Amino acid sequence: MIMPNLPAFLAWGLITSLFIAVGWLPNGILGGFGNADDPGSWQGAATQLALADDGTTFQQYVGMVGPMVTYLLPILIANAGGRIVYKERGGVVASIVAVGMITGSTVPMFLGAMIVGPLSAWVLKKVDSIWAGKIKPGFEMLVDMFTAGILGAAMAVGAFFGFAPIITGVSDALGNVVSWMADNHLLPLMAVVVEPAKVLFLNNAIGNGVLVPLGAQEVVEQGKSLLFLVESNPGPGLGILMAYTFFGIGAARSSAPGAAVVQFIGGIHEVYFPFVLMKPTLIIAAILGGATGIATNVVFGSGLRGPAAPGSIIAVYAATPRDSFVGVTLSVVLAFVVTFLVAAVILRASRKRDLAAGGGDLAAAIAQTEANKGKSSTALDAMAARQGGVVPAEAGATADGAPVAPVRSIVFACDAGMGSSAMGASILRDKLKKAGRGDITVVNKAVANLEDDVDLVITQRELTDRARRHAPSARHVSVDNFLSSPVYDDVVREARAEAESETAERSTS
Question: Which one of 414, 425, 442, 495 is the catalytic residue?
Answer without folding.
Answer: 414
